[in-house]
């Protein structure tokens, strides 16, 4: 039984290496450096960026007067004839995506197949992913803003303000988000996706506000805050210029967590029928519509799910990388090469 | 202690009151229950509107209506009526056992496995296992539960049922599963390359041998453990539990655990007799108590001093052996079970919470049926919580291992096992109890979706109905039950918390 053997490779980390690395660097530089070293987070950042670019450029977009023509030939309302050639007998609208690099590589006419009435499934999935990403960002921004405000006020002012705000937070945190989401979603879902996300964001801040409050409570006792007070800084200035920049790590990390939770919440609500409603499209809605055709036309089920996982997974990994980057106590694996160099330095010093 | 619990309970009740008030008003302002009636051209619509308004107190503004609702609950536990005039409490009473069964099993499995994998992951920080586990945990975090559920239905239920037709495992599957097992065990072991390959070979070979054996003997058609294998497993459990609980150096503990294994074997046939003639929940509870008594007796015989840890080891071993015996009995029931007309050779169900066609009266049939129906939903539900517990226990243990008291414990020459199990593990559990509450809210949300996918008639179904019918009383009833469950989980966590950390009780007294 060697399960309890001490894991020496990570335990003996010379403080020298860590200290020398951050010598003379600003906080921002240290964080950036640590983040760039987190391989999973960097890969996820690239994946998420590429996915967003791919998804948002595929279909036509209209922003005010600017009309952007998407590169994909179908939109979500086009209903071309259902393709049957090359499909298994009795099945129409099978996918044409081919990822065999030695054979016919390419998207084809309908890469993800067609739905029951012939709509191009690729266009539908792209639209659903756009909706999910939009919801994710809106909930992240709204929840992050409210959570930071509530947490900052109650942590900074303490006293009865703190008690009232934190009791209120406790009340909301005990209601499962799916229950709150369903109540809101079912009655505001028809207002359109941005409004739905806005309302959901109004209830997504509780965890964040608790963390921000804790951070403010400890930071406000620090010497630099006293120094600012003695120098005559206003509360506003202390909060925005002195404490908030120090709490930004906690805020960013929890906002990524809110965002990855938001995309799963939105798809779950749409799946239950309490979120995005037809004629709009959402990834959860697509899965809910076609879960019964899994045995016959599995592509209608696979592709929306893969996009949900792709987005949620990369956001989670980015959050993990940020947490490691902002955590001053984090220990990093020191590679064999670095250790050898360290030993050499120590030997030189002795001579 | 009681004062502490009392304070916690009061705080929880206040929170319950506040959150139900918020939810009630939120739900009340977000829609209108008479909307469907207003559009109707039926001449009786006015009378219907009036009666609906009267039964649901719609003429009272929502904040005041909440207190009417609350008053009725305090005076006789009356949850009011649904929109179709059905008492909410009857609907709830039917749904509660189903949902509790699902949530409880999933939570327990997620906690046990999550803790185990998270701790190993932390002890092997930056190993292949750790990286693999991190990825798996994040993947599970990102999985939509309804999507996984459909995959589970297809690949676990339908494929397994198909597999039972032939019962032989395809060579391709044997190779693939052995490779996975080899990679798993090899990733756990740190060491030089030769050692890793050796472990890979041993684990993979053993798995291949076992799977071939199961396939050749057509074990899956008529599974069972049997007394000989049971003895082997029991002795293995005895060594494993002693190792974790007291260390193999503690001879009385090892002797007690081994004695438990032998007693388990001696009682194998008497147990079969009892199971066959008096199967029931009470019998199992009685046998569990008997096991604990035997454990106490055995440890008193072997240990003269320091009996506590020895007794703990003996009882834990006894419980594991008892569970193995019950699993063996369930496996024996499997063959007659799948041969009944109700099952017809396809035992893993994809829908509903029990098989109504099953002949009633046979305890083991019902037990096995319940377990098989729980199989897929529990996996789907446990996945997400499992990921949370893995990440959290890993992070906490890493933090704890950096503390000064760990260095002190090592410095005074304790073995690494004692340092980890007694000093680090216990302190890891303390913050873990706090996330059980947060996780519970998530698992209730998961249960609502899971029940929908698997067609269970539980709280989730009621909830869906409440939302789409705009049934405020039903919604509040569902919320009342789920939040009471959450409060109870919270209280259990608090109890655990104060048992693990004496400082909490001191604070409670002052």
UniProtKB/TrEMBL annotation, chain A:
**Which PROSITE patterns would you find in this protein's record?**
ABC_TM1
From the record, give the transmembrane residue ranges: 42-66, 133-156, 168-189, 195-212, 243-265, 300-319
Domain (ABC transmembrane type-1) spans: 129-319
List, alphabetically, the GO terms of the cellular component aspect. plasma membrane
- Membrane-topology annotation of the record: Multi-pass membrane protein
InterPro entries named in the record: BP-dependent_transpt_permease, MetI-like, MetI-like_sf, OppC_N
Q: Where in the cell is it found?
A: Cell inner membrane
A Pfam family cross-referenced in the UniProt record is: OppC_N
**Which GO annotations describe the biological process of this protein?**
transmembrane transport
Key words, A-Z: Cell inner membrane, Cell membrane, Membrane, Peptide transport, Protein transport, Transmembrane, Transmembrane helix, Transport
Protein name, as recorded: Oligopeptide transport system permease protein OppC
The organism named in the record is freshwater metagenome
Automatic annotation (TrEMBL), chain B:
Q: Does the keyword Transcription regulation apply?
A: no
Q: Which InterPro entries match?
A: MetI-like, MetI-like_sf
Keyword entries, A-Z: Cell membrane, Membrane, Transmembrane, Transmembrane helix, Transport
Q: Name one GO biological process term.
A: transmembrane transport
Q: Where are the transmembrane segments?
A: 9-29, 102-123, 135-152, 172-189, 196-216, 228-246, 253-269, 275-298, 310-327, 363-390, 429-454, 474-500
Q: Which Gene Ontology CC terms are recorded?
A: plasma membrane
Q: Report the main location listed first in the record.
A: membrane
- Domain (ABC transmembrane type-1): give its ranges: 96-497
Bilayer topology reads: Multi-pass membrane protein
- UniProt entry tagged with the keyword Transmembrane: yes
Q: Which PROSITE patterns match?
A: ABC_TM1 (PS50928)
Name the PANTHER family for this protein.
DIPEPTIDE TRANSPORT SYSTEM PERMEASE PROTEIN DPPB-RELATED
The entry's protein name is Unannotated protein
């Amino acid at each position: 039984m060697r399960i309890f053997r001490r894991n020496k490779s990570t335990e003996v980390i010379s403080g020298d290496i860590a200290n020398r690395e951050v010598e003379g660097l600003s906080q921002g530089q240290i964080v950036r450096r640590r983040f760039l070293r987190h391989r999973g987070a960097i890969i996820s950042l690239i994946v998420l960026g590429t996915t967003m670019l791919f998804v948002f450029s595929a279909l036509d977009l209209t922003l005010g007067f600017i009309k952007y023509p998407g590169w994909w030939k179908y939109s979500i309302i086009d209903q071309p004839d259902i393709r049957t050639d090359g499909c298994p007998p009795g099945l129409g609208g099978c996918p044409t995506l081919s990822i065999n690099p030695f054979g016919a590589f390419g998207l084809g006419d309908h890469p993800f197949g067609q739905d029951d009435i012939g709509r191009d499934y690729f266009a539908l999935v792209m639209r659903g992913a756009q909706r999910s990403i939009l919801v994710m960002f809106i909930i992240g921004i709204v929840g992050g803003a409210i959570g930071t405000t509530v947490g900052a006020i109650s942590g900074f002012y303490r006293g009865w303000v703190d008690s009232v705000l934190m009791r209120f937070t406790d009340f909301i945190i005990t209601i499962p988000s799916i229950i709150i989401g369903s109540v809101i979603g079912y009655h505001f879902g028809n207002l359109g996706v941005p409004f739905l996300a806005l309302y959901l964001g109004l209830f997504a801040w509780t965890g964040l506000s608790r963390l921000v409050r804790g951070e403010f409570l400890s930071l406000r006792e620090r010497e630099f805050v006293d120094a600012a007070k003695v120098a005559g800084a206003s509360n506003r200035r202390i909060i925005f210029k002195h404490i908030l920049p120090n709490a930004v790590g906690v805020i960013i990390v929890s906002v990524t967590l809110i965002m990855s939770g938001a995309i799963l919440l939105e798809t779950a609500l749409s799946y239950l029928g309490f979120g995005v409603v037809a004629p709009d499209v959402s990834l959860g809605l697509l899965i809910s519509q076609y879960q019964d055709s899994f045995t016959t036309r599995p592509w209608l089920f696979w592709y929306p799910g893969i996009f949900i996982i792709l987005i949620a997974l990369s956001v989670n990994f980015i959050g993990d990388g940020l947490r490691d980057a902002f955590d001053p106590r984090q220990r990093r694996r020191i590679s064999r090469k670095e250790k050898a160099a360290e030993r050499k330095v120590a030997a030189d010093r002795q001579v | 202690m009681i004062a502490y619990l009392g304070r916690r309970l009061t705080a929880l009740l206040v929170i319950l009151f506040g959150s139900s008030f918020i939810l009630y008003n939120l739900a009340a302002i977000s829609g209108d229950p008479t909307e469907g009636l207003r559009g109707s051209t039926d001449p009786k619509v006015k009378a219907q509107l009036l009666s609906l308004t009267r039964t649901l107190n719609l003429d009272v503004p929502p904040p005041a209506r909440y207190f009417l609702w609350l008053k009725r609950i305090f005076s006789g536990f009356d949850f009011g009526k649904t929109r179709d005039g059905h008492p909410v409490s009857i609907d709830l009473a039917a749904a509660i056992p189903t949902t509790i069964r699902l949530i409880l099993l999933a939570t327990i499995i997620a906690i046990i496995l999550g803790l185990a994998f998270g701790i190993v992951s932390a002890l092997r920080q930056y190993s292949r296992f750790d990286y693999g586990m991190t990825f798996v945990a994040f993947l599970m975090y990102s999985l939509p539960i309804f999507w996984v559920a459909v995959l589970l239905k297809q690949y676990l239920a339908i494929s397994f049922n198909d597999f039972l037709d032939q019962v032989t495992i395809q060579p391709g599957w044997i190779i693939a599963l052995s490779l996975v097992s080899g990679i798993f065990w090899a990733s756990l072991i740190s060491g030089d390359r030769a050692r890793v390959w050796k472990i890979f070979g041993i684990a993979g070979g053993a798995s291949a041998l076992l799977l071939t054996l199961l396939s050749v003997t057509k074990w899956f058609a008529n599974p069972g453990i049997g007394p000989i294998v049971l003895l082997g497993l029991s002795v293995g459990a005895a060594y494993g539990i002693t190792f974790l609980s007291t260390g193999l150096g503690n001879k009385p503990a090892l002797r007690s655990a081994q004695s438990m294994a032998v007693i388990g074997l001696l009682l194998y046939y008497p147990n079969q007799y009892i199971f066959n003639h008096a199967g029931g929940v009470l019998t199992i509870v009685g046998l569990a108590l008997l096991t604990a008594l035997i454990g106490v007796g055995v440890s008193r015989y072997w240990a003269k001093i320091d009996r506590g840890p020895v007794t703990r080891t003996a009882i834990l071993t006894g419980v594991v052996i008892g569970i193995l015996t019950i699993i063996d009995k369930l496996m024996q029931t499997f063959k007659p079970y799948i041969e009944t007309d109700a099952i017809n050779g396809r035992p893993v169900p994809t829908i509903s919470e029990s098989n109504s066609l099953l002949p009633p009266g046979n305890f083991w049939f019902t037990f096995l049926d319940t377990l098989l129906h729980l199989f897929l939903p529990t996996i789907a539900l446990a996945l997400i919580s499992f990921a949370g517990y893995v990440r959290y226990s890993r992070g906490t243990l890493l933090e704890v291992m950096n503390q000064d008291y760990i260095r002190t414990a090592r410095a005074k020459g304790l073995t690494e096992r004692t340092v980890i199990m007694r000093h680090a593990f216990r302190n890891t559990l303390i913050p873990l109890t706090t996330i059980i509450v947060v996780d519970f809210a998530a698992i209730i949300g998961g249960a609502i979706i899971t029940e929908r996918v698997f067609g269970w008639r539980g709280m989730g179904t009621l909830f869906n109905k409440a939302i789409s019918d705009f049934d405020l009383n039903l919604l509040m009833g569902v919320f009342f039950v789920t939040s009471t469950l959450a409060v109870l989980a919270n209280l259990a966590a608090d109890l655990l918390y104060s048992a693990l950390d004496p400082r909490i009780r001191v604070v409670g007294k002052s």
